[in-house]
Design brief:
318 residues, 13 strands, six-stranded mixed β-sheet, alpha/beta
């Protein structure tokens, strides 16, 4: 057999072997035999309520990557005793495998989330981001089930310092007729606006991702029923002027890179896109004091939002 023919045959065999290996790798990464876990509705308490009178919370997202930057933000948060952490979503993987398989796997929670936020796990109220939600059966759900002893529902509520906190889900179905929005309407049926809702992708956004009109049903259900909405997703800090009686904050500068502002946006009262940090929230009945704090400790923006308690709302209607 000619040398050229032998080389050609060898090359074809090598390509076949490589194709089989590639197919096996893709099959292992995607595991098509695995079914997507169901979207679980709330059933009983998931995150415990309390404290009742005053509470210190931190809200931050887009920082679960194990980086030094994220650890500096968390070091700032732990300087003072805190009652709750609202993690606003996105857990990142590492390397080429995360590109193929997706972020937020069990390994990512073990090596990227836990080293940064693990000390706060029992005090954390999570909401999933777009990165980890597709792999929730491998990462998000078993991780939080291990913390709280029960598989996390897709959305849930709890109470802190006279406020109702609503962990909503921008990655699960949230159309006007969805189970989530029907549940939300039931949760906010009582009068009053002392409610803080948080989810990943913001309704209004001056950053690179822009507005998320698809989450309008969540926002619409909160209109006249909540005073605060807090989101992540865009890697910066934003405070928006009140719309429909709701003040929206974006706290996505947790450590995994920074996103510039795409344009001048008159809806935004404060914006910072060059500093890592988090949103500190001090709650008490009828009032919230919020401050964006850099990893270095600088107070970047301070604001106060007041709300109407159920009793106040009922008396005003009488």
């Amino acid at each position: 057999m000619a040398v050229g023919a032998v080389e050609s045959s060898w090359m074809r065999s090598l390509l076949v072997v490589l194709a089989v290996i590639a197919l096996a790798a893709v099959t292992w990464v995607w595991q098509p035999w695995r079914s997507e876990p169901p979207i679980r509705a709330p059933s009983g308490a998931f995150v415990p309520s309390g404290p009742d009178r005053r509470a210190l919370l931190w809200a931050v997202g887009d920082g679960a990557d194990g980086s030094v930057r994220a650890q500096r933000v968390v070091a700032r948060m732990r300087r003072k005793r805190l009652d709750r952490v609202l993690y606003l979503g996105d857990v990142y993987g590492a390397g080429a495998l995360s590109v193929l398989r997706g972020d937020g796997t069990a390994a990512d929670y073990r090596t990227r989330y836990a080293p940064v936020y693990g000390d706060f796990a029992a005090k954390t109220a999570p909401t999933p981001g777009n990165h980890e939600w597709p792999q929730r059966g491998d990462g998000y759900e078993p991780y939080w089930a291990g913390v709280f002893g029960t598989t996390p529902p897709a959305y849930y509520s709890f109470r802190v310092a006279g406020w109702q906190l609503l962990s909503l889900n921008s990655e699960a179905p949230h159309g006007p007729a969805s189970a989530q929005v029907r549940w939300l309407r039931g949760q906010v049926r009582r009068p009053g606006t002392c409610r803080l809702a948080f989810w990943h992708r913001p309704r209004f956004n001056a950053g690179e991702h822009g507005d998320a009109p698809d989450v309008a049903p969540l926002w619409d259900a909160l209109r006249g029923r909540a005073a605060l909405v807090v989101n992540g997703h865009d890697h910066n800090m934003q405070r928006h002027r009140a719309v429909d009686g709701i003040t929206q904050y974006v706290s996505g500068a947790g450590g995994h890179s920074l996103y510039r502002f795409a344009r001048r946006d008159p809806r935004m009262a404060f914006g910072e896109a060059q500093t890592y940090g988090a949103l500190r929230i001090e709650l008490r009945t009828g009032r919230a004091r919020l401050a964006f704090v850099s990893a270095g400790g600088e107070l970047l923006d301070v604001s106060v939002v007041r709300c109407a308690t159920a009793a106040q709302a009922a008396s005003s209607r009488a």
